[in-house]
Prior knowledge:
Blueprint: E1 2-7, H1 11-22, E2 26-32, H2 39-45, E3 50-52, H3 55-59, E4 66-69, H4 73-85, E5 89-92, H5 100-113, E6 117-119, H6 127-137, E7 144-154, H7 163-179, E8 185-191, E9 201-207, E10 213-219, E11 221-233, E12 237-241, E13 249-256, E14 262-269, H8 277-291, H9 299-318, E15 322-323
Parallel strand pairs: 1-2, 1-4, 2-3, 4-5, 5-6, 7-10
Antiparallel strand pairs: 7-11, 8-9, 8-15, 9-10, 11-12, 12-13, 13-14
Helix pairs in contact: 4-5, 5-9, 7-9
Amino acid sequence: MIRIGCIGCGAWGKNLLRVWDETDGSCVGAACRQDASRLHEVGEQYPDATLYSSPAELIADASIDAVSIATPPVTHCALAKQALLARKHVFVEKPMCLDSDEARKLAELADARDRVLMVGHLMEHHGPVKAVKALLDEGAIGELRHMHFQRLKLGRVRTEENVLWSFAPHDLSVVSFLLGAVPQSVRATGYAYLQPDVEDIVYMDACYAQGVTMHVHVSWLHPESVRKVVLVGTEAMIVWDDMAKTDKVTLSRKSIAPDLSNQDAGDEPVPYEDSQPLQNECAAFIECINSNARPVNDGWDGWRVVRMLEAATEALASGTTVSVEQ
């Protein structure tokens, strides 16, 4: 039984507590909450968990095998580093760090300590995303040319981070999962309407090797909830509409022929695993610990996402195209 120490028991941390407690092979062994006055609420729900007022005390608990971190992003790197140095396995919510150099060091530390480091890139354990990955790997659309991502809704507006850092990690983790690489260059444009210097709408473009391009549009100032991805290939296209009630993934056998004529062989719904991604993610973390396997959303996956966010932030500030170090 893997005993999980949970640091952060707020809105999302409560979800993690529940799923760790429900996952086969794991249990909530300890908890630490920033608001110590409400820590008793966690104790009432998980009476077997040891309660701590500070993360350091929890990390020092020799009975804890792994640490789950769901705290403000600015604290992620330091807490994950402390836990790895204490030879704990680590699950840390996205973004793993706010600096790509720190993210790289964290990934290297996990490798050196032979510990599982998993980043909360939830979409990589989502049934439709795994179906899209399978289609791409089997060459169902020919050669990939372009990726188009939209993640739009009204709110939840942040004050400490812009919409790029709040929304885009979901989509950039999907890109990292699909391609396993960072782009060669990034450019971005953003607009701040509600708060000075906090962009509410961001458009990000990137170029990958072999001429693959990507466009990401994120906004928390939009009347409808949109979560949609289109992958354009030389022979067909994939559409993933996460807001659709059914048939979320479609293989669209449409393309443009060499003579520039339209080719349309119709659309085909693609089956996918209908399960809860958070449950899948937590189960995968426990399995990786038990089998000493590397998770798909490991520290290097976390580094790729942070590097893309960092490059897009630099492009937003400079108004120029930014080259990305590989």
